[in-house]
Design a protein that fits this description.
Number of helices: 1
Order of helices and strands: EEEEEHE
Shape: globular
Largest sheet: 6 strands, antiparallel
Number of strands: 6
Radius of gyration: 12 Å
Number of domains: 1
Strand content: 25-35%
Length: 92
Amino acid sequence: MEFYTDADGRMWRVIDFKLMPRGDKKRRLATGHLEADGRAFHREVEQTRIYWFNRVAYRDLGERTLAEQFKISRPTAQAAARQFWDRTERLT
């Protein structure tokens, strides 16, 4: 499990995901997976920020990369329980 600590000292879980067909649900992928559509920064107090990868986005976990992605990410109002973060799925 990967974590990022923001400038205010708050710890966020880093979750890469792929969008599922027909709906807004997401499937968790291994962090840094090339097929990921986005990256979520999630805190247990029901706060989630989403960063959407583009075609050439960096998927590494370097401090500089995470800091820039966190800065660009936007809050989501969707409850984390609806987003299926609970397990990593393998794509074959």
